[in-house]
């Protein structure tokens, strides 16, 4: 099976589930949220549905959670404290476990995250555990661009150096955002920059230090571009578009600093479980408003991969 077919498998699977009211024979019916668009808005929450597949249920679930977390990071610039994993739906199909995760964040928490500019503000509001999970996911599932690719990227489509490889920030592009595709790309570039800050020790960006000032100077322009685009196009607050969908089938060229998901690289470059909220999801216990072991007081998880 070539990489394009493998990468398209989950897209087809989601479409198949949306077209029917039940999972494959012998498995519990898929809950309604599995059929909804990748991004929805519900009672003051932004909700993303992530997908993942692997040979073990734990790994498939890890991927589906991280996929949704990355979509939230793209919209909010990082996953803030208060982001929660609401539900999972998993089953075994065609030799692999298929997993769906429903992850939500309040609009007010997302807006607060988007406004953060200084490293100390970012680190204070960020859900470091979810960011750590996202970083592991990116290392597993993405081809990180080489320094040469970053250096030779079209400067008109870059916000600086590749944040996934180097924490030294260069001045961002000043070109205005002209369309939805470019809007998603700039958001992802900002998310990568902030991801580095979140995963760095507090001592890496002392308040008022040269490294902190350099970061603020680099990130200010793309953040202003994003805010302006949102003001001019308010529909982005209610649309169903997501970074995960865009990077599989981009409508605009991806700059060299944006890592490529391995499963979709070809397209870019040319036992079942259903866990509802139940008692364990109330009052922040085992998740609640703070997610499954993440959140403000979550326990550190052991990832289902070698570290």
How would you briefly describe this protein structure?
With 307 residues, the chain is an alpha+beta fold. The protein is built from ten helices and seven strands.
| Total number of domains | 1
Q: What is the gyration radius calculated from CA atoms? A: 19 Å
> What fraction strand?
5-15%
Poorly predicted runs are 1-12, 14-21, 154-173, 265-300
Provide the spatial order of strands within the biggest beta sheet. Answer: 1-2-4-3-7
The first-to-last residue Cα distance is 28 Å
Largest sheet: 5 strands, antiparallel
Can you write the helix and strand succession as a string?
Answer: HEEHEEHHHEHHHHEHE
The helix content is 40-55%
Total count of helical runs of at least 4 residues: 10
- Strand runs, count: 7
Shape by Cα distribution = globular
Q: What value does the average pLDDT take?
A: 77
Structural classification:
alpha+beta
Characterise this structure.
With 307 residues, this protein is an alpha+beta fold. The chain has one domain (3-257, 264-284). 41% of the residues lie in helices and 14% in strands. The protein contains 10 helices and 7 strands. It has a 5-stranded antiparallel β-sheet. A two-stranded antiparallel sheet has the order 5-6. A hairpin with a 2-residue loop joins strand 1 and strand 2 (45-54). Mean pLDDT is 77; it is low at 1-12, 14-21, 154-173 and 265-300.
């Amino acid at each position: 099976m070539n990489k394009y077919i493998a990468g398209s498998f989950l897209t087809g699977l989601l479409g198949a589930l949306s077209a029917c009211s039940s999972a494959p024979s012998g498995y519990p019916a898929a809950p309604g949220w599995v059929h909804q668009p990748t991004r929805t808005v519900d009672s003051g929450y932004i909700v993303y549905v992530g997908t993942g597949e692997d040979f073990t249920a734990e790994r498939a679930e890890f991927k589906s959670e991280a996929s949704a977390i990355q979509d939230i990071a793209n919209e909010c610039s990082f996953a803030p404290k208060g982001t929660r994993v609401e539900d999972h739906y998993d089953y075994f199909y065609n030799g692999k476990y298929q997993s769906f995760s429903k992850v939500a964040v309040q609009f007010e928490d997302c807006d607060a995250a988007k406004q953060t500019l200084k490293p100390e503000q970012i680190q204070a509001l960020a859900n470091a555990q979810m960011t750590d999970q996202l970083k592991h996911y990116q290392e597993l599932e993405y081809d990180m661009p080489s320094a040469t690719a970053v250096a030779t990227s079209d400067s008109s489509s870059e916000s600086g150096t590749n944040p996934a490889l180097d924490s030294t920030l260069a001045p961002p592009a000043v070109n205005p955002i002209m369309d939805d595709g470019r809007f998603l790309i700039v958001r992802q570039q900002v998310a990568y920059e902030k991801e580095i800050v979140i995963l760095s020790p507090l001592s890496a960006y002392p308040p008022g230090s040269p490294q902190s000032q350099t970061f603020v100077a680099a990130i200010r322009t793309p953040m202003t571009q994003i805010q302006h685009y949102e003001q001019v196009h308010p529909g982005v607050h209610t649309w169903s578009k997501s970074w995960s969908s865009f990077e599989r089938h981009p409508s605009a060229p991806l700059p060299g600093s944006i890592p490529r998901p391995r499963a979709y690289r070809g397209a870019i470059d040319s036992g079942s479980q259903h866990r509802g909220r139940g008692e364990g999801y109330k009052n922040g216990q085992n998740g609640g408003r703070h997610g499954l072991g993440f959140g403000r007081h979550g326990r550190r998880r052991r990832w289902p991969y070698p570290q």
